[in-house]
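Minutes, project check-in

Agenda point 3 was the complex the collaborators sent over. CS summarized: three entities, 902 residues total, and the question is how they sit relative to each other. Sequences were read into the notes so everyone works from the same version.
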Amino acid sequence: MEHQVDTTSFAMWLFLVTEIMFFGGLFCSYLIFRNWYYPAFVAASHQLSIKEGTANTAVLIVSSFTMPMGVWCAETRRKGALVLCLCLTFVLGLVFLGIKYDEYHEKYEKHHVPSWHYSTKAFTDPASDPEVHKAYPDDKPLPLDMARHTEVYFGLYFAMTGMHALHMIIGISILGFMIFRARAGAYTNGHVTFVNNFGLYWHFVDIVWIFLYPLLYLISRHA
Amino acid sequence: MSTDTVVRLPDQSTARIPKVNFITKENGLLSWLLTGDHKRIATLYLISITFFFAIGGALAGLIRLELLTPQSDLMSTDTYNKVFSMHGIIMVFLFLVPSIPATLGNFLMPLMIGAKDLALPKINLLSWYLYVIAGFMILYSMMTGGVDTGWTFTVPLSTHYVNTNVITTGLAIFVAGFSSVFTGLNFIVTIHKMRAPGMTWFRLPLFVWSNYAASILMVLGTPVLAITLVLVILERAFGIGVFDPAKGGDPILFQHLFWFYSHPAVYIMILPGMGVISEVISTFSRKRVFGYTAVAFSSVAIAVFAFFVWEHHMFIMGVSNYSTLVFSLLTMLVAVPSAIKIFNWSFTLYKGSITFETPMLYSFGFMGLFTIGGLTGVFLASTGTDIHLTETYFIVAHFHFVMVGGMLMAFLSGIHFWWPKWTGRMYPEKISQLAALITFIGFNLTFFPQFILGMLGMPRRYAAYPPEFQVLNVFSTAGATILGIGYLLPILYLTWSLKYGEIAGDNPWQATGLEWQIQSPPLTENFPEIPIVDYEAYDYEWLERKEKEVTRVG
Amino acid sequence: MSVHNDSHAMQPHGGTGHDHDANEQDVHDSLNHIVSPVVYITIAGILLVMTAVTAAVSFVDLGVFNAVVALFIACFKASLVVLFFMHVKYSSKLTKLTLFSGLFLFGVLIALTLSDYTTRAWGRW
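CS then shared the predicted structure for the full assembly.
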């Protein structure tokens, strides 16, 4: 039994290592373009809502708490509590996606989706965007070529958070399946491996966000 | 005690195909399509890989036909671009990367370590299905226009300038990548967790070490290819700008990310082949592999160093000169472990009792041709010579020497070596030796002129070329025809042998190794009881002593 | 080196008739360690506090150190998740080695790619 736990945990860790390399390519790209186009990245990141970003981070951290609590419930054979923990994690995941959707929608409305009627107006003329301009009055207008590089920022923003959101969706779907199985007692009879290994996956997705948050939202918010 | 069980030498003349084996255990298509048995999955892979190899080979034939004449007269240049691109994509992703790991590795890994199956049989089956899906997607892409960017998908050509099926093919390779990752993952978990009692790391056959090293590369490297393809697809479909110079993107970034996988990929392709060579050379020289530890560690060293050298594919692309220095040095270093292996195999042969069965012929071919290919790699590692030789036929010859002269020969060596174990039947020896010879001659005639062509300056990926290069091209095409025959013959006689081949018995080669202790073909559960290992690998000296003592064992 | 003779091969989950540990009350990690909820709550609290800190620091002008501090805090948070939530602190050497190799390779990707980008401007020799 222990051997079986070992084996599948090891397999899940190997899978997570592949995910490190998968997201690693995106982080590498981000690093290079942030270096090259720092002013564009700063201006573009001011367009992201720090409230929603921080809220999302908090949501994921709490879900990263409810998940190992679920594992503990499974290990100590508390079926009802396990189902509760899994449901909370599920709901928190949905909340995250909901906030993300709201952010994406806002980007779409402001014409900050790459190639989709992309507009650099907010960067060449900060006054045209009163909401952001009020928060960051010292933001100078960018020259046109640097303003165009904000499109690369948003390209990476959508690629990175989109890939992260895709992983969240997969995780939430598996959570749904697990809630169903947990109610039937599948994980409180000694076989916690599935919950444990899913927990590893969920934490990994959280860690990716822990890095995305400062890199995308907190580039330079000082006045 | 158990020293008696090191090698059983049953009498071959009374051998019969066992009634119950993994092939006869269950019948019906579904029992094959939903199997968890690693041997059945290996068989499924063997059939599908051969199918795609045939398609890739046909495309190669078309390339060589076109290059008979200096003009682009057989097909338009656009079509030619598609032909060599599809040839590369199919051969690299659908043949070379999965070939030995998915067929021989899947079949032999549990047998060699004394396990009943791989650690994750369902994932193994999933790997095969992903491979087949990827294959179908590529076929679909081919039939609806193909890609013409070369197998390297260089941007911004692939993202902004062509109107071919880049996205479909990119997705197909993404799926194939997952197939590869899951196979590698399975192998790593199996080797760590499922060795038989007494099978320590340093008693493992070197085939296992090589596949372990290749699996590390598969697991760690392939995801970077996956994200690169995702970025290409996003760039092409949504114009995110990361590779678009007009938006400030950097095409070189694509190349960094692409080659970060694709260089380790070539080691994914060659390492399992090297594992086969270790097994075959020791068996047919009746000697243990010289310097077991060195060969084992060199496999891992190749795997580690493989990740440090990718920029040597980009020396002329506009990278900084200082980084080319660093990567040039690292590339020279990565040649060292490969050379260590060649030396060790040579010393294994020295004072061995060498016989020239077909697997051994292919292994000799491997040693010679891989050495040539590898040495020309050192020419290319040096930046000064690389800027003249890159993007010419020198590169084409270099990688075909290591991949076809090396890897494909190793694959054929392994297929012939383990054919008796897999099917219970021997292949026909004389015709297979002939086929090996034909392959060797055809190969050299095809690819050696290409080294010269490259040095003379003929660029690669061109349908039309200056007339002074025609003679060498004609030699190359003639060789390709012979090579084609050399590859067709095994497909024919191996299929023939399934029904008419001589019955093999458990251990026709009198080889050491756990896989030779069980029946041919093996039972579904491999071992009637889990073996206990208390002897070293390749104990041929023991065998020599014992041979004088052993009488007929039934 | 444990041996299993089951022909039923290793599966991630199963509610079928395996009752090897029917007598055990609790099922343990691979290293027989159940982490208590107190640890989880503490770590979660620290993570939330560090999130607030990192958000606040971004409003202060530290020049180039903004990025350094932000990444440092992110690495700290990630380490807590890895060590405690993912149980790496209580895991085998193999798990630690696997994780390390992934991080190491990620580092290689970044470092060697940067070796090109940062030295391009140095010009030709």
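Noted in discussion: The domain at 2-32+52-119+150-212 of chain A is CATH 1.20.120.80 (Four Helix Bundle (Hemerythrin (Met), subunit A)).
Follow-up: revisit at the next meeting once the mutant set is ready.
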